[in-house]
UniProtKB/TrEMBL annotation:
InterPro entries: Endo/exonu/phosph_ase_sf, Endo/exonuclease/phosphatase
Domain Endonuclease/exonuclease/phosphatase residues, every copy: 68-177
Lineage top rank: taxon: Eukaryota
Protein's recorded name: Endonuclease/exonuclease/phosphatase domain-containing protein
Molecular function GO labels: catalytic activity
């Protein structure tokens, strides 16, 4: 990391899990990062944009592969949310769980037991998916397709009216997961404007 990105600092949760699961790095000239908490499924940090002075919380997620092993993740998120609920907050990464039955195509049907813990956590923390474009399903093994990767924000982020949107690229580039690119605080971004056609135009003699 030091040789490839000499102007960057980095943080990880490698001390919490043997193989390592989460790594973040940032440009010291534009971003300040203070790591607040970590375990084997998340890394939680305070982020400050040194250009705009804006500050927010970031939690990177890498959920374990079973319902039982993911339960501590949802409990930790609820605890973090209760402690720092008044700050804008982004939660992103591989949740390893869908939120609704329609977020999986193929394979076994989604049960209420599979989605209950994540659904309860999202409702408790008042989280919302960011505006996004690109792939709906973010993971695939060519038989099963599911949306297990997401970028979410809390209600405080929305109340502050902060700009954020995400693009999910097709899986298969460097992983069987979609690469997600989230942009924040972009000024003067042209928002999608819906196309409208009025039938009365077709009746005009110059149409």
């Amino acid at each position: 990391m030091g040789k490839r990105f000499p102007d960057c600092s980095f943080a990880h949760n490698f001390s919490c899990v043997d193989r390592g699961r989460i790594l973040i790095f940032w440009n010291n000239a534009t971003v300040g990062v203070d790591t607040l908490d970590m375990d084997d499924q998340l890394l939680h940090a305070s982020i400050k944009c040194l250009i705009s002075g804006r500050q927010f919380l970031l939690t990177c997620i890498y959920g374990l592969h079973s319902i039982q092993h993911r339960k501590p993740l949802w409990d930790k998120l609820k605890m973090v949310g209760q402690q720092q609920i008044n700050l804008p907050w982004i939660i992103l990464g591989d949740f390893n769980s869908v939120l609704t039955p329609d977020e999986k195509h193929g394979g076994l049907l989604v049960t209420n037991r599979e989605i209950r813990d994540l659904s309860d956590c999202v409702a408790f923390l008042e989280l919302y998916d960011t505006q996004h474009v690109g792939c709906f399903y973010t993971w695939s093994n060519n038989t099963v397709h599911s949306k297990i990767d997401r970028v979410m924000i809390n209600s405080v982020w929305m109340q502050h009216g902060l700009d954020i949107y995400t693009e999910f690229l097709p899986p298969g580039c460097i992983s069987d997961h979609s690469l997600s690119i989230t942009t924040v605080f972009r000024e003067n971004r042209r928002r999608n404007i819906p196309f409208k056609f009025y039938n009365m135009w077709a009746a005009h003699n110059l149409f």
